[in-house]
Amino acid sequence: MVTNQTEYAMKLNFTHFIFIAFLIPFAGIKAQEPILVSEDSLKIGNSVLPGLSVTIPEAGYEKTLKEWIKDLQGGTKSRVVTENNEMSIFGAKIKDISPNPVNVYSRLVERDSMLQLYASFELKKDEYIERGVDEAVFAKAQNYLKEFSKARYIDVVKDQADAEERKLKDLQKELSSLENEKSRMQKSVQSNNSNIISEKENIAVQQAELATVSAALTEQNQLISTMEAGPAQKEKAEMIKELEKRQKKAENSIKSSENKINRSDSDIDKDTGDIPRNERQQEKLRELIAAQEAVYQRYADKLKTIKGY
């Protein structure tokens, strides 16, 4: 039999998931956005440098900034210097662009639903990567920025997909819990029905014992009333005492069986009342799971599309 505390916890859990049911249909799932790499310019101090810019959809500013600095500083002892949101690093090792160290000037800007990263790459003093100078190197710089943006976008959408998958697993776990609880209640009903049959059989046996003992007691009491005091009467008194013990034992056994039958009946009534409620909760959860599976699949598809950029 489920304790009140367990029942309360289950009701709380189910109420929580019913609340989710109202959220799922209204969950805003943004479609994947393109990553746009453009020829651009970057103002550093009083200078305007040729460069490129790339959009980074849905990404958070602080995390993206941290990843950008980490990427620029990778494999070198040089460090990014930031002043007035303008970043610069000298001697960055970016093998995807050039086998030689390059100087990188950059700025990360927040837009409405995305970030925009501006970068200028200086191969040698006053020699910048720009269109029309070396198209192959320019294409490498474009791809480098695109891959950085893609990695950040993948991180964001993967976190979104993972969060939706966790919600789905929580719902599935709750459904499994309800299924197990229904199975427990069904087994409890079967067990209690078996117990009732067993206890009724015991009552029948004990009632037969009572009938036998009562008849014997009546007979022995009649006999002892006609006997004179002495060893025979004493022996008869002991016999009557044993019969009375048997009588008491049978009566106690009958009472115990009746109490067990009452408890089993009560448990059966409760379980048979709770099973339909459990089934309704399962049905609702299956609806939530189907809805959440669709939500998760949309994020998974979105992630797959972005990985294909």
What does it look like?
The protein is an alpha+beta fold and 309 residues long. It has two domains: 4-25 and 167-307, Orthogonal Bundle (Helix Hairpins), CATH 1.10.287; 37-133, no CATH class. The protein is built from four helices and seven strands. The protein has helices spanning 4-23, 61-73, 135-225, 231-307, and strands at residues 37-44, 47-57, 81-83, 86-92, 102-110, 114-124, 127-128. Strands 1, 2, 3, 4, 5, 6 and 7 form a seven-stranded antiparallel β-sheet that branches. The two termini are 56 Å apart. The model is unreliable at 1-6 and 20-26 (pLDDT under 50).
Ordered list of secondary-structure elements with their pairings:
Layout: H1 4-23, E1 37-44, E2 47-57, H2 61-73, E3 81-83, E4 86-92, E5 102-110, E6 114-124, E7 127-128, H3 135-225, H4 231-307
Helix pairs in contact: 1-4, 3-4
Give the beta-strand count.
Answer: 7
Average pLDDT over all residues:
91
| Oligomeric organization of the protein chains | single chain
Count of distinct structural domains? 2
The run of helices and strands is HEEHEEEEEHH
Largest sheet geometry: 7 strands, antiparallel
How far the N terminus sits from the C terminus, by CA atoms, comes to 56 Å
How large, in whole angstroms, is the Cα Rg? 41 Å
Provide a compact summary of the structure.
The chain has 309 residues and is of the alpha+beta class. The protein has helices spanning 4-23, 61-73, 135-225, 231-307, and strands at 37-44, 47-57, 81-83, 86-92, 102-110, 114-124, 127-128.
